[in-house]
Amino acid sequence: MKKLFIVANWKSHKTEQEAKDWFAALQSFDYSEAGLDHKEIIVCPPLPLLYTLKSLITTQNTQNLPLRIGSQNISPFDDGAYTGEVSANMLKDAASYVIIGHSERRNYFAENDELLSQKVEQAVAQDITPIFCVQGKDTPVPKQASFIAYEPVFAIGSGTPDTPESAESVAAFFKEQAHTQQVIYGGSVKPENVNAFTQMPHIDGVLPGGASLDAASFYQIIVNA
Ligand code: PGA
To answer: What is the pTM (predicted TM-score) of this model?
Structure first.
């Protein structure tokens, strides 16, 4: 059975207490039918909560869930005089993954292809796997990015996901390029529609935003995937 990646993108949500409550709730559910032997759960909290999450996973993961941490951002530069930035070197002790190229960062923070390539390079140099977001088949993908998230802009936060068939065709397109190993789908993923995506042969998981904020709905996504 293929390995599925279930990636929670919390975006700019949750205080430390809310993160702790979410984590405790996630631990309270029954995973006996969840198929966790072939699933990896990646939580991407806001930057100030990375080490809170790390400590929760180290000390409170009573169900031994296959949890990893992802960052939602990374500096395009090494350590140095870059006020406000968090370097790959600082992230690597907590984060195994980093989301790069999300349309919200392209649109609200003017991140362009060149900057995104630099971020990918920084991540890879510290063994952090970039989850590189593409908005369609024409989005350029840096060579070192082998894990792709297809996130069509119309589907993000809209309640209207892409069709599983269309997402499958985009996933297959990127997988024809030799360096792509995983493609996941994001954009209005919910417990009710997740399985239609993960059933597709070229889709390796999902990236829910809104539906990951509530522990019960995220749990249902994990189970239904
Ligand atoms: P959504 O966001 O699930 O709230 O649509 C997905 C994303 O932007 O990663």
So the answer is: 0.98
Structure tokens at 5: 């990646």
149 CA: nearest ligand 1 atom: 9
- Give residue 17 CA to ligand 1 midpoint distance, Å: 23
Distance CA 207, CA 96 (A): 16
The question of whether 102 is a catalytic residue gets the answer yes
Ligand 1 residue neighbourhood (C-beta within 6 Å): 9, 151, 156-157, 186-189, 207-211
27, 62 Cβ separation under 8 angstroms: yes
Token pair 């190993």 in the structure block, residue: 181
Q: How far is the CA of 51 from the centre of ligand 1 (A)?
A: 23
Catalytically annotated residue among 40, 104, 111, 151: 151
- Residue 66: CB partners within 8 Å, gap ≥ 6? 36, 39, 40, 41
Burial of 56 per CB tally in 10 Å (0-12, 13-18, 19+): buried
Express each pLDDT in 76-123 by its tens digit: 999 999 999 999 999 999 999 999 999 999 999 999 999 999 999 999
The secondary structure of residue 14, as a DSSP letter, is -
Question: Helix, strand, coil proportions of the chain in percent (round to 5)?
Answer: 40, 15, 45
**Alpha-carbon gap, residue 158 to 3, rounded angstroms:** 28
